[in-house]
Amino acid sequence: MSSPETVRSRTIRWELPVLDPAELAGLSGLEYLRRGLDTDTFRAPIGALMDFRPVRFDEGVAVFEALPAEFHYNPIGSVHGGFAATLLDSALGCSIHTTLKPGFGYTTVELKVNYVRPLKLSTGPVRAEGKVIHVGGRIATSEARLTDPDGRLYAHGTTTCLIFPLDDKRTEDKR
């Protein structure tokens, strides 16, 4: 039974994930992601929920940071693996997104995560850095590492993503 001093609460606020779909379709992946970095109010709903943020996007690279918190904990006293997986998935997918031409999107087809050591409150801030391995006409792959400020590895992963036109009128060879 919980006592009043052990009960916590948290309020989450978020913006609509895509304010203007036509704007998304008219920008390259890198332009779209960088535009989000330049906007004080832009934050994907998952970032608000899990309390992580994007910090850098370059061609083929995406970096996110977070601070493990009590609300990320599982019942065995460490940060839930889904926190690391979500950070890695974001870095992996967005690294691929940075390579896309206007009018194309992506979705995760496969995600593989390897956990190396547990995350705890004492870990401090962590950084997920995703880097593209290969981008083809329909399939792209990337890899990412989740590290602390001293470079200690906590998890690493890979993804395969499907690339698709946002508008059925576009063709694959225009990517």
UniProtKB/TrEMBL annotation:
CDD domains: PaaI_thioesterase. InterPro entries: HotDog_dom_sf, PAAI_dom, Thioestr_dom. Keywords: Hydrolase. Residues 77-154 form the Thioesterase domain. GO terms for cellular component: cytosol. It comes from the Bacteria. GO terms for molecular function: 1,4-dihydroxy-2-naphthoyl-CoA thioesterase activity. It holds the Pfam family 4HBT. This is Thioesterase domain-containing protein.
